[in-house]
């Protein structure tokens, strides 16, 4: 490491240093879905307010974002919202039960041509207000991650209308109506870039794209439909200079296509050991992940052993953000999260890293 990068990383919070592949005081850790139903304080708020109200009310959304950060010494906060929030209020009837559904899914080229995605300030102004409130309430060294759904994952919900194991309707539409699929992905890329730029302007310090359903696609289908939209979003955000993170869930066979994108960190699900992810991604990308969320159900000693395996797989080169390989499950005991966070910090702080 050069002297300059040593100085820089001493000033940066560990999460931002790791995103930049700089040495950090310890391996940073945050947890996908860290604000949510495994926390009794979240469930208590949810008894009083439905999910959409929590998301739409800046004071409540900020409070839920802060809950896990108060409880555990996490290295980053993530905005409490949902990937479908920017598709609320566009006339398609978004509901959460708690899984999202659209009453009026987009199933024809005509419906896609008629779709108008408003500028995010029009229907997602509360999200920007939440980010602004959080920047003043969060500790200075706890960076705030803003996020959005990647265009292909949003496309899946809009066309299918609901969650699904294989999103057969949405996938079939790629092959039966490719021009309309492109048009929808393009509209979503434009809106997603504007939505993330708005979060950055409001104070988010890193931006993450969740591509939960990328792994449903064969590599050539991903290259044809999903990747161009991701590339457009990233290219529009790159000039902001913030770390950009991308999570292609179940995307082991897609990682080679990410090399060379204006991207800083790739989230890896638990199926692929991090050493293999690093080999596929090369030296220019940091990795995030990838403990199996089910490991949190193991007895404490076994949990820490499984966490060590993730750390060993990540290796000693800088550029690892510890996380789960997917969102934390509601049945998880918060004490296990406390153990995990403390262990990752203890094992990675000190001279050897
Ligand atoms: O990570 C965080 O703590 C921030 C908040 C966050 C939520 N959803 C809150 C939420 C984030 C980053 C998301 C992302 C999200 N939402 C994804 C991408 C990540 C992934 O899991 O692959 C997806 C696919 C969704 C869509 C979604 N929203 C589903 C499938 C569900 C229902 C199932 C579930 O896990 O709860 C939701 C609802 C949702 N989003 C809840 C929360 C806390 C539960 C709502 C409730 O309290 O009833």
Mean pLDDT: 95
How many helices in DSSP terms? 15
Shape: globular
Estimate percent helicity: 40-55%
How far apart lie the N and C ends? 12 Å
Bound molecules: coproporphyrinogen III
Strand content: 5-15%
Would you identify the regions where 5 or more consecutive residues have pLDDT less than 50?
A: none
The radius of gyration over CA amounts to 19 Å
SS class:
alpha/beta
Helix and strand sequence: HHHHHEEEHHHEHHHEHEEHEHEH
Largest sheet: 7 strands, parallel
The count of β-strands is: 9
Strands ordered across the widest β-sheet: 1-4-5-6-7-8-9
Describe the structure.
The chain has 353 residues and is an alpha/beta fold. The chain contains 15 helices and 9 strands. The strands form 2 sheets. A 7-stranded parallel β-sheet has the order 1-4-5-6-7-8-9. The protein has a two-stranded antiparallel ribbon with strand order 2-3. Helix 8 runs parallel beside helix 11 (178-202), helix 9 (151-160) packs across helix 11 and helix 14 (300-314) packs across helix 15 (334-348). The radius of gyration is 19 Å and the shape is globular. The two termini are 12 Å apart. It binds coproporphyrinogen III. Coproporphyrinogen III binds at residues 32-37, 46, 51, 78, 80-84, 96, 98-100, 147, 163, 210, 212, 249, 327.
């Amino acid at each position: 490491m050069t002297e300059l990068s040593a100085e820089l990383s001493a000033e940066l919070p560990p999460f931002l240093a790791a995103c930049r592949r700089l040495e950090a005081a310890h391996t940073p850790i945050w947890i996908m879905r860290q604000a949510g139903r495994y926390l009794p304080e979240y469930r208590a708020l949810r008894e009083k307010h439905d999910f959409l109200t929590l998301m739409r009310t800046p004071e409540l959304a900020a409070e839920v974002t802060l809950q896990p950060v108060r409880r555990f010494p996490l290295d980053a906060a993530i905005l409490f919202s949902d990937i479908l929030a920017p598709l609320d209020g566009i006339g398609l009837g978004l509901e959460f039960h708690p899984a999202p559904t659209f009453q009026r899914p987009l199933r024809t080229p005509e419906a896609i041509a008629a779709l108008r995605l408003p500028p995010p300030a029009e229907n997602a102004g509360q999200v920007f207000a939440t980010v602004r409130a959080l920047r003043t309430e969060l500790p200075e060294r706890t960076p705030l991650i803003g996020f959005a759904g990647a265009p292909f994952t949003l496309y899946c919900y809009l066309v299918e209308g609901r969650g699904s194991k294989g999103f057969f309707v949405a996938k079939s539409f790629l092959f039966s109506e490719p021009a309309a699929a492109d048009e929808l992905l393009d509209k979503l890329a434009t809106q997603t870039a504007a939505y993330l730029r708005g979060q950055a302007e409001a104070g988010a310090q890193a931006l993450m794209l969740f591509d939960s359903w990328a792994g449903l696609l064969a590599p050539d289908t991903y290259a044809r439909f999903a990747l161009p939209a991701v590339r457009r979003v990233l290219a529009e955000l790159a000039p902001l200079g913030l770390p950009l993170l991308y999570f292609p869930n179940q995307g082991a066979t897609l990682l080679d296509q990410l090399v060379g994108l204006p991207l800083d960190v790739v989230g890896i699900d638990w199926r692929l050991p991090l050493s293999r992810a690093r080999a596929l991604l090369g030296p220019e990308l940091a990795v995030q992940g990838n403990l199996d969320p089910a490991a949190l159900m193991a007895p404490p000693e076994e949990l820490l052993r499984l966490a060590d395996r993730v750390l060993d797989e990540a290796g000693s080169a800088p550029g690892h953000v510890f996380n789960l390989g997917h969102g934390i499950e509601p049945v998880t005991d918060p004490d296990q999260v406390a153990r995990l966070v403390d262990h990752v910090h203890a094992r990675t702080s000190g001279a050897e890293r």
